[in-house]
Structures are given as structure tokens and as C-alpha cells.
Q: What sequence folds into this?
């Protein structure tokens, strides 16, 4: 129907142009940002899922750093105890030599002097070894129950308690050398070398037990790290599938909409010429 008041063809063309412009704008935004979802209007459900996955990934990244830091701390403690073990072995050698009848009193006094020096260093290592400015061994981090945050949620923790073993270690060390508590001239080799050998064996066993616990905890943290890395990789991939734009598909959509916009514009121009047809009927 020819009408001066209503141009149905023009209205249809304008509506088509409006829809095409909106779709074209969305395609251009996606291609310029690289994301399929740029606001909740694009995909409300997808955005919610992606945000949750992103928070999980971020938390796991921090947890991975936690495991690395914790492993470094445990390795520092284990390294200090390795030196403690070396000193105890030397002290045991001195005690074994002093217990022999071939050692004179002067020999035992000389050995006791070295033994006392080693005792002082044992106290120094056990009481003053630090990690990040905090005491690590006796009366420190390892000497209490430890909680490691190994995941993005509150339930993902790892508990390690070596406090009982550390207490036994400290007691055994104080038994083998008077210099553990305060500087003094000991009598371990000059008067009781043979019994000191047994005490040193107990101290070595206590040190090895703590070292074993530290090694087991460090190995577990390594497996935690590897598992977190695997989960994080797959979670990032899942987030990308939701959020990232498919450039091939979106480029084709943009091209199609550009062609539709050109066609709709041309048709709007043609529909606007229909008014001249109405006027020709009045001539």
C-alpha cells in the first residue's frame, strides 16, 4: 500500500539496521578485546562461572608460592640439622677415642676442649637458625605444630607436628653437652666418655628422626605443587573456553553484519523514494 503517513518498508529497513549495528558493535568489541564476554549482558551465566574459575586459579597460584616458600623453609631447617648431625658424629668420635685406655688425661683434656667448642656451636645452630627473620628450630617454627595453606579454599591445609620430636632432640642434646644451656668446661670426656657415646647415639637418632619428618613433609609439598600446577593449567583452559573469543567465527560474523548493514542502508534509501511515487499519482 502506498501511503504518505506510514512507510512500512522504511520502518523495516531501519529496524534491520538497528539490529545489525548492535550485533556488529558486539563483534567489533569482542575482536578488539579478545574476550567473548565483556559484560554480564553478553553471557550472565558464563561470566559467573568464569569469575569463579578465575578466583580459584588465582588462589591456586598463591598456594603454589606457599608450597615453594614452605619447602624452602623445611630445607633450611633440614640443612641446619645436617650440620648438627655432622657435629654430633665428630663428638662421638672424640668420645670413642677418649674412652680408650690409650688416651691420657692430657689427651682427654684436649679432646674435651674441642668437644666443648662443638657443644657451643650446637646450641648456636639449634637456637639461632632463622628463616625470614623468625627462629626456625628450638623454640621456633619447627618446634610447634605447623599449618600449610596448600589450596585456594579454607579446607585445603596440611598439618605437620614435629614438636614432640624436637623436644626429645633438645633434651638429648642438653644431655650430651653442658654447653647447650650455658658456656662451661664440660666433663663428658674426662670423666664419663664411655657413657657419653651412648648419649650421643641417642642424640643422633633424635636428629635423624626430625630430619626424616622434614624430608617427608618437603616431599609431600612437592607433590602438592605439581598437583596444583596441573589443576591450575586445566582451570585456566576452562576459563579461556568460556571467556575468549573465537576470532575465526567472530570475524565471519562481523563480515556478514557489515554486508547486511550495507544492504539495509541501500534498501532504506530505496524505500525513502516511495514517497515520490505517491506524488506522481497526483500529477
A:
Amino acid at each position: 500500500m502506498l501511503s504518505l503517513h506510514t512507510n512500512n518498508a522504511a520502518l523495516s529497513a531501519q529496524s534491520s539496521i538497528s539490529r545489525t549495528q548492535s550485533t556488529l558493535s558486539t563483534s567489533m568489541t569482542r575482536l578488539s578485546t579478545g574476550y567473548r564476554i565483556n559484560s554480564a549482558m553478553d553471557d550472565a551465566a558464563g561470566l559467573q562461572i568464569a569469575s569463579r574459575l578465575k578466583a580459584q586459579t588465582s588462589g591456586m597460584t598463591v598456594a603454589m608460592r606457599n608450597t615453594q616458600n614452605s619447602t624452602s623453609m623445611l630445607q633450611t631447617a633440614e640443612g641446619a640439622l645436617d650440620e648438627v648431625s655432622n657435629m654430633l658424629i665428630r663428638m662421638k668420635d672424640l668420645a670413642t677415642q677418649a674412652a680408650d685406655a690409650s688416651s691420657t688425661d692430657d689427651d682427654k683434656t684436649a679432646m674435651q676442649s674441642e668437644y666443648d667448642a662443638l657443644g657451643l656451636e650446637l646450641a648456636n645452630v639449634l637456637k639461632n637458625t632463622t628463616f625470614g627473620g623468625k627462629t626456625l628450630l628450638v623454640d621456633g617454627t619447627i618446634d610447634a605444630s605447623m599449618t600449610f595453606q596448600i589450596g585456594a579454599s579454607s579446607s585445603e591445609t596440611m598439618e605437620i607436628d614435629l614438636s614432640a620430636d624436637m623436644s626429645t632432640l633438645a633434651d638429648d642434646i642438653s644431655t650430651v653437652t653442658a654447653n647447650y644451656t650455658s658456656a662451661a668446661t664440660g666433663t663428658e670426656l674426662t670423666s664419663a666418655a664411655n657413657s657419653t657415646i651412648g648419649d650421643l647415639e641417642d642424640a643422633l637418632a633424635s636428629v635423624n628422626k626430625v630430619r626424616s619428618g622434614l624430608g617427608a613433609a618437603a616431599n609431600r609439598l612437592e607433590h602438592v605443587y605439581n598437583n596444583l600446577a596441573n589443576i591450575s593449567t586445566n582451570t585456566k583452559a576452562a576459563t579461556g573456553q568460556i571467556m575468549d573469543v573465537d576470532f575465526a567465527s567472530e570475524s565471519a560474523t562481523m563480515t556478514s553484519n557489515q554486508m547486511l548493514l550495507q544492504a539495509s542502508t541501500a534498501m532504506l534509501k530505496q524505500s525513502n523514494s516511495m514517497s515520490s511515487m505517491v506524488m506522481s499519482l497526483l500529477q
Observations:
- The helical segments are 8-33, 44-98, 105-128, 163-176, 188-191, 193-243, 247-272, 274-280.
- The radius of gyration is 39 Å.
- The mean pLDDT is 88.
- The longest strand covers residues 145-149.
